[in-house]
Amino acid sequence: MQGILLLLPDFGLILLGWVLYRLVDFADNFWSGLEKLVYFVLFPALLFRALASTPIDFLTAAPLFASGAAALACGVVLGLLGAPLFGAHQAAFASRFQCAFRFNSYIGLAVIGKLHGATGIATMGILIGAMVPLANVASVWMLARHGNLGVLREMARNPLLLATLAGFLYSSSGLTLPTVAAQLLGRLSEAAVALGLLAVGAALKLRGSSGSHLASCYLLAVKLLAVPAAGLLAAASLGLSGVYFDTVIVFAALPTATSAYILAVRMGGDGPGVAWLVSANTLLAMLTLPVWLTVALRH
């Protein structure tokens, strides 16, 4: 019950986005524009600010990164093992593969902020910053491989990767963000979570085709059950506790990000199929995430 109550406001924003999309007469280009604003401007600003303003002790944070990487690697490996379930439809697999391990950072930052405040947000920001390149490398590589696109070119154009690398470099330089820049980035960061969650809700599409039911159920089970279990095992084995432990569990239990759909469409993949899978992932996470959150709170 405690986990459910913590998540109600955030899932409430997602449902509000779904209601607004269907009941309020906003043009479709309003929501597509909002998605692009969050993906290309607001969320990169949030990532850069979180990393640039937080001194990163890589030695202390190594177990945190290792646990997150173990959870992510579990999703990648199990996702690859699901390729035979798609049969001849390997182009569809290339698009949906990322749904086994990509994570919705908007939800993660909102949840960990309630648990641990600014410390939790900074910790999640560091973990997200370290994991975003890994998730994007795997996603872009698979889509580029099947779409005959240049992997390095696509990586160089990815705003989340660029913001992450810039944030790490700025943090490593020892410089402090100028006051005006910090305030500007702060305003953009504040807008990122709320607008991101509304965009998640507006993007929910439940009437499309799931494709192979067995393949879809497999990828859902990987993301919502196997990946969190791997994160829990890694965090416990490496002796994490407190905010680090909670951050890994929340991170691993997050549903797939809507950026998976944006990436699939931009790279000529199966956009509708990814949209359906992301929607199912998000709705099922309303049941599974409180369970994993309760596990973290009882540790």
Radius of gyration (CA) equals: 18 Å
The computed structural class is: mainly alpha
- Residue share in helices? over 70%
Percentage of β-strand residues: under 5%
Count the DSSP helices. Answer: 12
| Distance between the ends | 16 Å
**Spatial shape:** globular
- Please give the largest β-sheet: none
Query: What are the segments in which pLDDT stays under 50 over at least 5 consecutive residues?
Result: none
Number of strands: 0
Rounded average pLDDT: 84
Secondary-structure element pattern, one letter each:
HHHHHHHHHHHH
List the quaternary state of the chains: single chain
Explain the overall architecture.
α1 crosses α8, α1 (2-23) packs antiparallel against α12 (271-298) and α9 (213-237) packs parallel to α12 (271-298). It contains 12 helices and no strands. The mean pLDDT is 84. It is 80% helix and 0% strand. It is mostly helical and 299 residues long. The chain starts with a helix and ends with a helix.
Based on the model shown, name its key terms.
299 residues; 12 helices; 80% helix; mainly alpha; globular; 0% strand
Please outline the helices and strands.
Layout: H1 2-23, H2 28-52, H3 58-81, H4 90-96, H5 105-147, H6 151-156, H7 159-173, H8 179-202, H9 213-237, H10 242-253, H11 259-266, H12 271-298
Helix pairs in contact: 1-5, 1-8, 1-12, 2-5, 2-7, 2-8, 3-5, 3-9, 3-10, 4-5, 5-7, 5-8, 5-10, 9-10, 9-12, 10-12, 11-12
Short description:
With 299 residues, the protein is mainly alpha-helical.
